[in-house]
Amino acid sequence: MGVRGARSKALHDKAMVNCQYSMATFSTGERKRRPHGDRKSSEMTLHLKQTFEAAILTQLYPRSQIDIYVQILQADGGNYCACVNAATLAVIDAGIPMRDYVCACSTGFVEDTPLVDLSYIEESAGGPQVALALLPKSQQIALLEMNSRLHEDHLEKVVDAAAKACGDVYAVLDRVVREHVQEVTTLVGE
């Protein structure tokens, strides 16, 4: 896209969040010719964009663009969730203010039991799956995606399990960010 095209998409009152999701051709057992641009990649790109538009304080950067590029090198399951968690750390490290961390976790439902953080084999089993991206402090849902039908009696259990797992992810991310900040401030102080 030329400069003119980028300018026409610029928003006068807030930053535009631009995302791109792609998978390396060697990331799965099945070989793909095109690492991005297929329907699944386009869908994941849109999900990432929606998720981070809900979290980043875009109004602080009018007429700007924030780019988030993620590439899956090994698809072991929970690709969207891993991307959200990694991109959250990258956005924080870049110093871009957010309302809250964005934490994501995948959940499946097998034999009346919700399973969190699904592996590739568990995802391939074909049961109902939910991906949840959550702003943990406010419990605001940034994205909730289901891949198949799930009876409404089970939905609450599955979403609760995913929300608890997102809380656990938040605790890990927050600890790592605080350790990193401590380490950087110690190095700057020397």
From TrEMBL:
It is found in: Cytoplasm; Nucleus, Nucleolus. One of its GO terms (cellular component) is cytoplasmic exosome (RNase complex). One of its GO terms (molecular function) is RNA binding. Residues 13-97, 100-164 form the Exoribonuclease phosphorolytic domain. Keywords: Cytoplasm, Exosome. One of its GO terms (biological process) is poly(A)-dependent snoRNA 3'-end processing. InterPro entries: ExoRNase_PH_dom1, ExoRNase_PH_dom2, ExoRNase_PH_dom2_sf, PNPase/RNase_PH_dom_sf, Ribosomal_Su5_D2-typ_SF, RNase_PH. Its main location: cytoplasm. Non-catalytic component of the RNA exosome complex which has 3'->5' exoribonuclease activity and participates in a multitude of cellular RNA processing and degradation events. Belongs to the RNase PH family. Component of the RNA exosome complex. This is Putative exosome complex component RRP41. It comes from Chiloscyllium punctatum (Brownbanded bambooshark).
